[in-house]
Amino acid sequence: MKISPEILNLIPYKPGKPISETQREYGLKTVYKLASNENPLGPSPKAMDAVKKALDHQNLYPDPSHYELLHTISKLWGFPTQQLAVGNGSDELIDLLTRIFCEPKESVLTSVAAFNAYEVSAQANRAVIRKVPLLTNYAFDMKGIADYFFAHPEENIRLIFISNPNNPTGTHATKEEVEEFLARLGNRDDVMIVFDEAYNEFVRAEDYVSAQNYMGQYKNLIVLRTFSKIYGLAGFRIGCMIAPPEVVEVFNRVRKPFNVNDLAQVAANAALQDKEFIERSQQICWKGLDYFYKKLEELGLPYIPSQGNFVMFDTLRDAAQVNEALLRRGIIMRPILNYGFKTHMRISVGLEHENEVAMAALAEVLKEIPLYNKQ
Ligand SMILES: *Cc1c(COP(=O)(O)O)cnc(C)c1O
To answer: Are the CB atoms for 174 and 208 separated by under 8 Å?
Structure first.
């Protein structure tokens, strides 16, 4: 077999450990998963009702034009449908954008510790990933990323991914940084700027701005949204893109005709209009984050204030050992060794009692495991 070296060397994205697998491996009945930034409230109830009603016509192929969903998004977000597209999760959008804009050996630019899907997609599409180091506060170095672009014309950087807020760090780029970045890189013909705003609805920072506010000003700007987080539809696999009409047109040529299944379209359409659920999801996130901050302070563990529905913190211990000890107690958190952090973990906000059980387990585990000697 001859397999291309980029594919052979591919390190696949490692999702959070599933509950069923943890139950099997550790012989546990009760397992709490706070590992994948999912919505702990479940799917929006309106989405569930809509899905139940749609079950009886699943013998039919889904609408390949996503007509109803795109019109709902258009109405709510204020963009014409020609500027909107949906995919099988943001995952598919990221992958196809890379395929569309990068020739083999051309580059994708992002930050160190950016959402890992950008790197996996770059490699799978034979592009090269380039990463600019984080600032000391773990935020993206927006100025550094723009500087890097101009300093490396030979790398043929065709796409820049900015996750704002970022996962796993929970940090955000400020309005001032976003505006300066766009002023320097906006409206270029040779590079597309993608703001992945999966956690947009959870942001509390007053100096945050969504890049969607600048869509009218820049023709090389794309914004990604997902239904996996605040809308509680991760299992349905659906994400959305706001982009210039030319990009949407090309995207629709490249994507599979039935990339988003009917139940996902129906669920997203209903969830978008479930304002009460969205507000409840925000409240539970913010309350949970504040609880985590308080507990982590009590435990003496440094954390990065988060604009997402999760927080990254330093266990000051070998995170692999901490993770193992937590799993034995039925708590799935997320070690982030694959992002280069040996002592950090990420915990997603769960229901109140899940958060409490997780923090109690963490407190016990810390007593068992020695401090990490960084040398
Ligand atoms: C969770 C997440 C997404 C969502 O991915 P889907 O494929 O839509 O589930 C996108 N970007 C970031 C940064 C995320 O953390």
So the answer is: yes
